[in-house]
Amino acid sequence: MLSDKIHKILLKQVEKYHVQKEAQLLTNGVQWFYLKNENEVKFSADKNITIEKAFQAKCKSVKIQDRSGEEYEIDFSKMVENPVKDSTSKIPVIRRDLIDKGSLATEKPKHWADMKSNENLMIVPLNSSDPEYIKVVQEFHKSVGSSMPIVKVERIENLTLHAQYMAKKRQMDTRKDNEHVLWHGTHVVAMNSINAHGFNRSFCGACSIGNGVYFAVHASYSVRGYAAPDSNGDKRIYQCRVLTSDYTQGQSGIRMPPSKSPTQPHILYDSVVDNTQSPSMFVIFHDAQAYPDYIITFK
Q1: pLDDT by residue (tens digit) across 104-117?
Q2: Domains delineated in the chain
Q3: From the CB of residue 243, how many other CB atoms can be counted at a distance below 10 Å?
Q4: Is the dihedral of CA 31, 37, 39, 41 positive or negative?
Q5: Structure-derived torsion over alpha carbons of residues 226, 227, 228, 234, reported in degrees to the nearest 10
Q6: 58-107: pLDDT as tens digits
Q7: 0.70 exceeded by the pTM?
Q8: Interacting residues of 182 by C-beta distance below 8 A, sequence separation 6+
Q9: Torsion-angle region of residue 126: left (phi > 0), alpha (psi -120 to 50) or beta?
Q10: For a tag site, which of 90, 175, 193, 219 has the least CB within 10 Å?
Q11: Distance between CA atoms of 109 and 132, rounded to whole angstroms?
Q12: Cα torsion at 78, 83, 87, 93 (round to 10°)?
């Protein structure tokens, strides 16, 4: 009957409206991206809600389709996406808390260099006589010794990442012992992506205490295991600010911190560690909980 057809059409329109509203609400808080030629590309609103729902439900992965109907799978443990037909062709995905554009300038540290209105990222080399340079190198040498020659120290000035970090810090500052200066060794191939997009677990090889991003208490640990040399023999390590707050023992395979209480499963720890009595390694699962302040290039 005609009335039944009209009723079905109206139901579909109502359903579509509610899906769009839900997607809009989600998009206002969280946006998923994939990297294309080192640029962040937004997933559409409907894909965004599909991915976020699966992530919140603690699914291991989720499948989506592009406009041509080709199916892709997102692996949440590795934060990568690949065509279902080709599991070897992987690209990083990023989950980002959205921030007010107006907060970018207000969150900018006073000692940072001036930027043009359309700039978001600057890599600023520090002079070896600069007190800022000296302090960073002293902290590095305190852990690894002075036998490792410094090639250069650069300050990472990323407006978006810093504003997200500060917003997360304000949210977590009510908790104890929130912020720590930690170290993250890396290879040159990951450096540009970290500078532009922050720490992403798709570039992190370790997973012994969780599928997150790893930071060492002592630079010597990162130097030994993770600061791989390039063709010139140069190695790289980040000095970072990391929000660790309430932590617990990590375990292999987890992609979110455990719940603090069985009766309140939605309240999670903020990070996990290798040893709760004397941590040497912290793992975070939220990208906004770390900011890469400096990158040290050394021999």
Answers
A1: 666 788 889 988 87
A2: 2-97 (3.30.720.50), 103-298 (3.90.228.10)
A3: 23
A4: negative
A5: 180
A6: 888 999 998 888 999 999 888 899 999 998 889 899 888 776 655 566 67
A7: yes
A8: 215, 216, 217, 240, 241, 242, 244, 282, 290
A9: beta
A10: 175
A11: 14
A12: -20
Counting every residue written for the chain, the total comes to: 299
Q: Kindly report the CA angle at 110 between 107 and 113, in degrees rounded to 5?
A: 100
What pLDDT, on the 0 to 100 scale, is given for residue 18? 47
Give the tokens for residue 184.
């993250």
The amino acid occupying position 23 is: A
Note the pLDDT of residue 4. Answer: 56
Q: How many helices (H) and strands (E) does the chain have?
A: 7, 17
User: Which residue positions in the chain have pLDDT lower than 70?
Assistant: 1-28, 99-106, 202-206
Element (H, E) at 134: helix 131-144
Report d(CA 43, CA 32) in Å as an integer: 6
